[in-house]
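ok trying this again, last paste got cut off
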Amino acid sequence: MHRLWRESIHHYLGWIMLAVVCMAVMAAATAFSAWLMEPVVNEVFIGENQDMLWPLGLAVFATFFIKGLANYGQSVLMSIVGFRIIADNQNRLFAHLARMDLSFFHNHATGGLISRFTVDINQMRTAVSNALTGFGKDLLSLIGLIAVMFAKDWQLAAICIFIFPMAALPILRLGRRMRKVTANTQEEMGLFTTLLEQAFQGIRLVKAYGMEGYEKSRIAGIVERIFSLNLKSARTRALSSPIMETLGGVAVCIVIIYGGYRVIEGATTSGAFFSFIMALLLAYEPMKRLANLNASLQEGLAGAERMFKLLDTEPAIHEKPDAVDLGSVKGHIQLEDVRFSYVPGKAALNGITLEVPAGKRVALVGASGAGKSTILNLIPRFYDVDEGRVTVDGTDVRDVTFASLFGGFALVSQEITLFDDTVRANIAYGRAGAEEDEIIEAAKNAAAHDFIVDLPDGYDTLVGEQGIKLSGGQRQRLAIARAMLKNASVLLLDEATSALDTESERQIQAAMDKLMQGRTTLVIAHRLSTVTGADLIYVIDKGCVIEQGTHVELMARGGNYQRLYNLQFAEEAETSDAVRAAEA
């Protein structure tokens, strides 16, 4: 709670103090309304004093009017504080996660992270609002009403004050139980969000394999678990009600018997007794809310605990305090005896040493899982090496700023990422502030302009989540256009044309050749025919470089590269023969 106050709440102390003033006015009005019962009963109903009708009636009206205004003020002010806390923590959490390395996101389900922004932070806001309102409005109202009770009959007040603290111990126990249940519920909600996201994103596969029933059962299972936890939470929260109702009944029973006896004996007036009763009944609701406050607070603290745990998680990859700016990147890249593992004990790279000369086109080839994409990920420092080093223009990538490092690279991966935005916005993502003609030029160079203008709204067409409204080839061409627009010194192409048909690939090959001129280009290609013109080819196998040279040199050597090339050429020839036979 202390950290929550220090990092989130105290920034809005001014707003909170204004709300507390409103709460104090509201508490005073509540207490005064109970106080007014004595003159109303004694002067009007017993004394039948007509001269007091209007003054007392107007006093009651003014009291409730002021109470209503004060309640409105505190509600608005607390809403400002509560929603501001949500916004601040959501911004803070996203800014922190944006600093995290790729391995963090690979180890944390997306749904679980999203639930921190929605479920956890909202519960935290509710707890903060309830706590501040409870300790403000309810506590002040309770203090004012207890003061009225003591003023009217201190003996009865002392009896009532003795009874209600008996509820403290069981309510505190309920709060601890509530926190545990809430934490479990939040975990399940994160998993629920993840399963929904996976099902919706993979709906094509779900339908193709007839797995609707399986997905329904998975969702139904977690829904039932959430239902059980919510029910347990509701039952735990509801337990405070019978405790307070029972104690409230005991207090009112004692007041009626003992207080009634005192009125009959003439020890107090009827007005004073009814004023006491009204104060007690008015005090009952804030007492109940304060009793429930602990459960609500524990829910919010569970959410805050999960959020702070995430905020305390530091990225595995840091920018050094004295990191240097790479400046204008020439693109000379070296890997020196690099070793790397995604999982301890299972090496992905085993002492890789290779060089990518500045301005040259270098290809990495080999079987799937050989380590090609890992090499590509280490160069812009998506991961850090376990041993050895990666340098750009002679400087270790761990010694340079992220901004200057990322600014020198453009990446096109086989895993295309498009945002649920317009075609224009997805291309312009490559360079903020790009002009319209530059966007169109990049699209033309990527052989994307023709299909874009045929879309319903041209460059303003929304592509849908992950570009679902486009074909695989169209998505890939937008990604290539985005890289072309960035106009970086180094191009990293990971199967950049894998989703293109032969005709489309032919269309953009000339443009890509032009783009590569004077730039360092590192290409991972499945189709070896696309890298025959590379200045240097590295053959990767089991995390090691087993061959290197030009296409001609490697073919003449008769090694692994020649075997891969001939095998692929035979497969392509077989496919072509099958197509011709089908057409005939």
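PB: full thing came through this time. The chain has three domains: 2-311, 325-408+490-502+519-584, 415-487.
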